[in-house]
Amino acid sequence: xxxxxxxxxxxxxxxxxxxxxxxxxxxxxxxxxxxxxxxxxxxxxxxxxxxxxxxxxxxxxxxxxxxxxxxxxxxxxxxxxxxxxxxxxxxxxxxxxxxxxxxxxxxxxxxxxxxxxxxxxxxxxxxxxxxxxxxxxxxxxxxxxxxxxxxxxxxxxxxxxxx
Length: 163
Known about the structure:
By secondary structure, the chain is mainly β. Helices cover 2% and strands 47% of the residues.
């Protein structure tokens, strides 16, 4: 199917997907759209938390090879976690360059207001590790111990990356 206005090609739909304008290259076709619930988990780079439960209402949207993940996660009374705070269970691995989350809204965590934590998702990874700026842009790992003994710590942020 070809859709045109004023003699100009605007949209083409064929066996490769949707193409815009006069582009007819299969490599440029939009051939994937997906929405879903993510199943994320608070994790650490060292000793994992002991907890009674985690609550996750995170969602994602994938258009072509771009994924936008909306993180909304909490954990009930975590104890024993050590190392860097991490997020696992991303719906797809990052096949593009390293990307950063939005500034995270973290609550019921020690020092979360003063440290302005953010997450980094490296290339070829499906694990986000959290950091904070100590001074002049120098980043340090956000300690998983900031959640230990807190009542229902939570996190909200977004990240967009390439599959």
